[in-house]
UniProtKB/TrEMBL annotation:
CDD domains registered for this protein in UniProt: ACT_RelA-SpoT, HDc, NT_Rel-Spo_like, TGS_RSH
Region feature (Disordered): 604-627
The TGS domain, residue ranges: 432-494
Originating species: Prochlorococcus marinus (strain SARG / CCMP1375 / SS120)
Occurrences of domain HD (ranges): 91-190
One of the GO biological process terms: guanosine tetraphosphate metabolic process
Function summary: In eubacteria ppGpp (guanosine 3'-diphosphate 5'-diphosphate) is a mediator of the stringent response that coordinates a variety of cellular activities in response to changes in nutritional abundance.
Pfam families named among the record's database cross-references: ACT_4 (PF13291), HD_4 (PF13328), RelA_AH_RIS (PF19296), RelA_SpoT (PF04607), TGS (PF02824)
Family that this chain belongs to: Belongs to the relA/spoT family.
Descriptive protein name: GTP pyrophosphokinase
UniProt GO cellular component terms: plasma membrane
Pathways involved: Purine metabolism
Ranges where the ACT domain occurs: 701-775
Gene name tied to this protein: spoT
SUPFAM superfamilies, alphabetized: ACT-like, HD-domain/PDEase-like, Nucleotidyltransferase, TGS-like
Amino acid sequence: MFKATSASNETQASLAWNADMPDEPQLRPEIVSSSDDYAIPLPVWLKNCIDQAPNAIGESCPADSDTLLASAFDLAFRLHKGQFRVSGDPYISHPIAVADLLRDIGASPTVIAAGFLHDVVEDTSITLPELEAYFGSEVRGLVEGVTKLGGIHFTNRTEAQAENLRKMFLAMARDIRVVLVKLADRLHNMRTIEVLQPAKQQRIALETREIYAPLANRLGIGRFKWELEDLAFKLLEPESYKKIQQEVATKRSEREKRLHLTIELLKNRLINAGLNDCNIDGRPKHLFGIWSKMEKQDKEFHEIYDVAALRIIVPNLETCYRALAVVHDTFRPIPGRFKDYIGLPKPNGYQSLHTAVIGRHRPIEVQIRTQEMHQVAEFGIAAHWKYKEGGSPASGNTERFNWLRQLVDWQQEEGSSDHNDYLSSIKEDLFDEEVFVFTPKGDVVGLRKGSTAIDFAYRIHSEIGNHCHGVRINDKLCPLATALNNGDFVEVVTSNTAHPSLDWLNFVATPTARNRIRQWYKVSHRDETIQRGKDLLERDLGRQGFDTLLNSEAMTKVATRCNLKSTDDLLAALGFGAVTLHQILNRLQEEIRLQNMNQVSPETNAKVAQDISDRRDTLSPNKTSTKASPIMGLEGLDYRLGGCCSPLPGEDILGTVALGNHGITIHRQDCINVENIPIARQLTVKWNEKSIQQETKFSAKLRIEVIDRVGVLKDILMRLSDSGINVSDARVQTAYGKPACIDLKVEVKNSNQLTMTINKIRAMADVLDIARTGIN
């Protein structure tokens, strides 16, 4: 590596890397003789960069590309010195691989430099201002955009995933190049994932298939998309992966022979037509693509005819259509299989002619495109935009990222606190579009198949959807529920007095539209939920003195204890079911008692603690049940599960002892009922998962707000029945012109099963909202 400068030269040396870097002096190192001084394998292009610019390594804000890349690598190498991956490889191997992937797709030197440095802020002592001082604001911005969230506590993995994706999409909105580094980072991690624990492999692979592969597709980076999908497929569906891999390998020689004959025939026909500069090659389909088609079309492997395809690269646009004519003249085209993505490009910029023909005794797919179109198809935004050093992508291309703006807008709205809704919105927006329609200005908008004018309106902007009054499709007024078809011209008619209807939820096809409608309803009907909560509370407390009690300090403190800002928020939460009447009354009684009696005396708390200790000490082994207790720490003691929070296995719990030693109650640790219970009356307990029998079920109560229609309860119960969830109680409250409120008591094994149950119900079109409540 480097040698330190001598003390005699200290005054002449210029300051370079930070003094806190591991095992390095604060002055600039001497010039490197060659790239061989690094004791790790380096890509040829990186060796050339280092050998071309040895004198400049360590300088601030290097100007030329070779110096920038050599300096970025050198800093990453020194900062990650002594760090290793789980596999045991030096950590620097990961940034090198990321930078190499970015170079393969034609990313700019600035982006490649960010690839070298993308983990240094998170994993080393360097700060973002220091990084900016070395490499400028552009590299700093890219590194900051891909740096993972650190030092923030998340209550669950869903929240952590949602927050990390929010940060990434915000960074993408500022500079779309951020996602190039993120995708390269994910691809190399997937290539080396086998060293992780199986459960972690599954989680990362699922996120890759649901988020990162579709994201690569939306950005047009086919080279990343295919490999990410296949790597995730290998982990998530190992048996299917092996089977298809074997099928492809078994038929390879026969397929290659057939392709070779077809290519030779087409070459001769193209030359005879005067098209001498065309290149033809065979293109194998990636394994996940084959499996997806088999699943979607319910076919066996031998029934999928486009396991391999032909790609014809031509010199210019005109030649594309001339080559298509030759293909259709040589082979019989299959009706309905021609797609012109040149005249109507995909939203991600993809352009090509697709056709399917009957080849030599078998159908075959043919793609025709120019070299420039091929670069965009393979490398997406890295090939499509020309970046200026020190600037962002050309502003004229930003309309291609309306879907990204939608994601950023969604996360900034009130409903973004629901992490499940946000994740479903992301996944929906990243899926392959199947319907392409035009705005009145001729812009292309991609939507999920089955989408309607309402889905289109919300894709354009949430306010257009909220004020949608009518729609013209191909200059004809049509019902809002009309399904859109490819090539339709769609014009949304808006009105300031129009607002969403709950009926829209019966026909919209996209989670984005569904979430916007639900959110508008929750905000606009706040007065109704407040009144509903007020009626419930007044019915129990009585009318006399109710208004005084409602505006009292005690009620304000109850709202605060429920993590709500005001009494109105408390009533609204009660009206919907986010808090229960039982919870409010318990807290209200306690607050009034504390106002009158100040608080429980320390002597009483000490006596309760001693009583607990005495009961445990006097419990002899022969009195203990032979059956292990589901709660560790309470062996032989009587206890009950708190109805206020209904704890389930898998959730953090604690025990509390009532005054007078009237038994022990098990609460969730985040239950607001335990906030003011003295420490002396709290017991440290946890679930004994091994002692919980497989058939043991625990009760949980759900409050569901739905569109009031015939059969909605039956649909919910059928979905639960299909999932093996027993419903022990179901009650429905209805009011004319308002949504119905369904209270369900379900029996589940643990918290994970409850979460899956809630997600399944939330995904139903008629469901406006769902919340977990107490049993009592």
